[in-house]
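A common beginner's mistake is to predict each chain separately and then try to dock the pieces by hand. The better habit, illustrated here, is to supply every component at once so that their relative placement is modeled jointly.
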Amino acid sequence: MDPVKNDNYRPEMAHIGKSVLVKGELSGSEDLYLDGEVEGSIELRGHSLIIGPHGRVRANIHARDIVVHGKVEGNVRGTDRVELKKSAILMGDISTQRILIEDGAYFKGGIETQKGDAKADGAKPEAKAASASTSSSSASPAVASYSSQGASASTATAHASSPTAQNVHPSLLEKKY
Amino acid sequence: MSSVTSNIFRLFRGDASPSPAALAAQPAVSERIPRRSSGFAEFARAIAGRDSLCVLDLGPTSPANITHLTGLGHRSYNEDVLLASFDSSLAMTSPEGKPTLNAQKFLADNLAYERELFDAVLLWDMPDYLHESLVKPVVERLHYVMKPGGVLLAFFHTRDAGPDAPFYRYHIAPKDGLSLQPVWKPMDGLANGRRTPMFRLQRVFNNRHIENLFRDFGSLKFFLARDNVREVLVVR
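With all components supplied together, the output reads:
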């Protein structure tokens, strides 16, 4: 299924497809469209996160703008804006400057609006490939970063297990037939 | 995801790619009806001029309510307690052999806040619809999580409302008013096409019942509206 086409989505965004599962700390320095499953934490300071209709997140989230079409269990911090679309289900607390909720969205938790947080993350930096470090050690959580190169994932289930690499190898996120 | 959210899906969402049948299973939501509310006006006056209050809204998620409360600078909490009470894992049998709900489990998963957190609570008419086994435990929990002096607004249907009274979502409207949004069960293809409320009125409280329900609170103030609803402002 194509990502939700709306004013927020742009083709150049990094993309995690609906069959992808990420466990651990997900961070990056560019915008992300997430339609898969994430357990852990998501750090995208200064950037946008769109959780697609198939997205299922069990993590705390920190980003500049956060748009939710899918399901989130965790606390959400959008330094500029948090938007819950009508299909959204969010269970957790929200901290943001601006909150937009469509009728039909389900929310359970607390909302606190704050002023001035948008400046804390600074201007949006140039998009660059995020460095990726992955670990298979059970003692430390797997850390998965992503880059815009080969970041479109289709049917593979990705568990971070390969050694440290400058960029995430496309095979971790994309399976070609 | 928890079973509560599973119930949410079954009741309101269907699949990610809903079939026509699944779409038909979604509740029918109607246009809104404006309503003056002396009780809400009093509630609004009670929290006016104060900053950074913690306000708990126990109705269905209402963008209007969240916008209103956060726009006033308050921290808004939302919890649809009535919907949560339909979690199938709560079902149990009482010692007398009657079907009931596990109040202890319900309160472990819902209204789990710290003591004396909230300055204000919007209960709406939830006690009229909630399963009997949960009504008193929920009110006791609200007493626990409210600050002394905190205010609670509740609506109770009068006997004249009738068992098929519409179930409403309550939205805060400008000038301290409300707008009511009837929510109906999905049209299930019945020949008569009759609409039924999404939730059925379970009981009618009289004044004495209401006073007994809130006996641990400080004071109650009653407002009688024209639409068979009794509004009560309760002070913790």
